[in-house]
User: What shape does this take?
Amino acid sequence: MEKRSSQLKLSLKIFFSNPTAVIGLIIFLAYVIDAIIVEVSPGLLGIQNPNQLQMNFINPVPQPPSPHHPLGTTYPGIDLLKGILAAIRIDLYYSVVIVIGGAIIGSVIGIIAGYRGGIIDDILMRITDIFFAIPYLVLALAIGFVLGRTTESMSIALIIVWWPLYARYARAQTLSIKRMPFIDAAKVSNVGSLKIMFKHVLPNVLPPIFVQISLDLGSIMVIFSVLSFIGLITNPNLPELGYLTSLGLQYIQTAPWTVIFPGLAITIFALAVNLMGDGLRDLLDPRRRSSI
Amino acid sequence: MKLWLFIAKRIVFAFIAIIGLTFIVFILLHTAGNNLLLSEYINPRLTGPAREQVIHELTLKFHLNDPIYVQYFYWLVAIFSGDLGYTNTPIYSGPVSGAIALFLPNTILLTIIASILIWIIGVPIGVRSAVKRDSAFDQSVRVVSFALYSMPIYLVAFLLILVFGVYLKILPFAFSLSPTLASNLSWYVNGVSYPTHIVIIDALIHGNLTAFANAILHAILPALTLALSTIAGIMRILRASMLEVLDQDYVRLARAKGVPEKVVINLHARRNALIPVLTLYGYTVASLLGGAVVIEDIFSYPGMGYWTTQALLNNDVGGIMASTLIFGIVFVIASLLLDIIYALIDPRIRY
Assistant: This one.
């Protein structure tokens, strides 16, 4: 137990010795806190309905940033600051759902393929290859057509294209863990293979998967917003960053802030989780560990 | 494992992947229901018994009452014999194969220009970044590529439009040819040029140098957006692999022998550092085709992507199915070719 807490201390020390990783973590937490506030008490941020953008048809043309609208407004009369603060909740929610969904499916398949080996491994990995070969936009188009262009169907599409990545990671990780003595020990003491997979292999596969999750959160939010931007999510008034960006399309020449600010909100998040993920990856790197 | 065996195995896998892809597309479309599948074939003005009759005939023709695997078989046969059905969008109505012939060339052109840009921008910067490790140049390259890496592709497009199109006013950012110029051309109709459908080449064929120059200007921003959206990844990998190579014994030996630094970097190091970049590059080119969907939409550039979004917004079964298949197949074939090239270059990879 003592060893574990000193390990944790060391990990924290390594993470916090990396200033960019800490900045990434702070920004990530800011987004999470914003999402929680909008969920629990949107009034605090002046948002009336967190599931709908507040339109103002009296003054629909985008207004430049001013004390009243710190980030300006976009068509039709939507305050961009409030819109972005509300949208972060939705984008963050779906990014987390998609990444976690993909990670769970992928890890299970990867662990089974890696641990069982042989023909099961071959079949599972060929299936993985097929899904790996499908470009996300293509699948999103097809699923959007069949299931309707909704946030849910887009999440399903992205989970379907995202799990193969995790399956490959989990399989590679499982292959190296499989050869470790404690697995042999478990086998000798007659532990069932299902139990070995999920009680002994899984906990060791999780740390790198966790790093990958934090790195992927940003990419997924970017892709989710792209899908929404090109019209694969048709829910008018939904506070979503890609949709919010597309509202300013006609005004890009006269009111560039309408596309730049919502776009930046995504970019900053993606940057932050990438920095944070890089910091987390260092924690798993034994070379880094010994240098501190 | 012998090389030919490796290649044979990869070809089989690619074939399985393509079959799997068609299966997924088929199942998806099948769940959409017969009425949607048939909608492209039925004259919307038909009503009553006449309509029932047409539906009945089509159901027989496409074996829609047979078990699903029989339907899948007939569908596959049709696909592989080039019959992809019909498409009906505001920019094109007719057989899907016709639409592909019209729109795919422009997308391929954009992809080619973008991949050349990636090569001539990404490689020198990545190499220099590694050689001048931790210098101000290296640091700023890393910051910029990190930012690019995190940006949605449409934001990259807008920033380029704002800088080059709106403020500097030096590059056009809509269509493949300026509308005023196009209105006088007999070979340019509704955004599509004839006979090759690649505006730049058609302008040359018709000997119209003004249109040629104009078409090139129109291709720059979409191609640059495509390139920038993937260049960051290339530069990152190249820098890392260059740093690793520069640390190798043979580079040290070359330096100790007194080989000029320029030769060490360009001949000894860069060549070897490019191997991992090559794989990424191939996947990049394949994904450029997918990225083209968003970019062609923003720039109203008449390619596969533009047509795909039109198909999507109009619930056009034929169009969506065809682009799903084509983008997927291109991706599979590109990764197959890459694996083979990679195995030829780096003998360690064969297992």
Notes: The CA atoms of residues 149 and 233 of chain A lie 5 Å apart. The mean pLDDT of chain A is 84.
